[in-house]
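The protein record now logged underneath.
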Amino acid sequence: MMEQACTTILVGKKATIDGSTMIARNDDTFLPITPQRFLMYPAVAGRHETLTSNKNGFTAPLPEKGYRWTATPNVEVASKGVFDESSINEKNVAMSATESVYANERVLAYDPLIKNGLAEDSLQTMVAPYIESAKHGVQYLGNLITKYGSPEGNGVLFSDKNDVWYMEIVTGHHWIAQRIPDDAYAVAANQVAIQEIDFNDADNFMWSDGIREYVEEHHLNPDKTGWNFRHIFGTDTEKDRHYNTPRVWYGQRCLTPEIAQEPTSSELPFICYASKKISVEDVTAVLGSHYNETQYDPFGHGADEDRLRFRPISMNRTQNAHVLQLRNDVDDAHSALMWICLGVPAFAPFVPFYTNATDTDPSYSETPLTLDMTSAYWMYRTVSMLTESHYAQFVQEDVDYLKACRQQLKTMVADIDAASENMSGDDLTAYLTKQNYAIVAEMRERTMAMIGQFITEGLTLSKLTFNMDANL
């Protein structure tokens, strides 16, 4: 079975070039085509509703009150489930769920997964609209896991303008969360990532009730000293060394290139310190990577054995990729940007949206199930497919297109910030909503021009040609 497997990056505010916090993830799914939408859900009050998952039967009442929030759900929810996946709410609390993780059989033997517990398809919906800080998000979700249990292993990302937390739920009821130090970053890829736990440091670690007693009672700690969450609860298999650890290795190679490590190492660090300040562009480069400039690049010139050895970060089945950025160099009302890529992140741009907005352009909010070039999802999938189909001929043009997009988007964000710095309240929200539409329109014009250029060039690349005599 193909796994629903993602790649995660978390960055503290002193590790970034502009003092923002960032959490980011490639949301990978089972199939290359899983149409996505981007929505702005309104705040609610006085609600009396029950959520019921059509994936595993999980049922729970929804709170009566909830904040406005964004989401990137599936279009085909009846068969695939909702999976709201990524959001920033009106309190500027970001959340991304989930990074699938897997516990070993020793720990699951004594706290098995709960079949109808809180799963990924319902998790974002049950948490994101109700939390007021990143740490509150961990506490809130932890309480839900205590009450309902978990049917799977999940890594959940939380951030606000000051804090970044990563939470790993590994058994039916047990979990650990760690705060990413302000001057650090972390990369996770479908394997339990958190390492040594300091149970005397409640400012930087959180955990499920009774987890230490659980480990001691069932003799689960394999180490002679210390309390290493990865060693106790995680896996360390041949599959990990081909599917998971190489992605962590490459992300760290990009951000800390001076440190020599092996892609199959089981001891790659969770908390890392970059050699330079990290930008949004650095994070999106990692999310769009495929072992570039190494022998493991599937588009490279290495031996077949190497090019097919490891699972890359960017995949054709990445249904959306996102960077949730909370900026500290502007006021709170402008702070939150959700950078979204609905194409293959190796070939398509990350488009920024101000989340202090009330709706999204129909090209994002009304995605159809079948090809329609008025849809952002299908447009960016098309430019991705065309680039890959004639990779040698088109890749440099795609690189140039992405570079021009990044430059234009940075300019637009700066201009919007400057033009709206004296606005507030509903006027500001309306203005930022309108500017989100303008950003979408600019990117549509550029992308459709690129698609047109690729199709025109592609028509000259047919193999159904034959040159013999210039006069024939």
About this structure: Residues 5-346 form a domain with the Penicillin V Acylase; Chain A fold (CATH 3.60.60.10). The chain has a mean pLDDT of 96. The two ends are 53 Å apart (CA to CA).
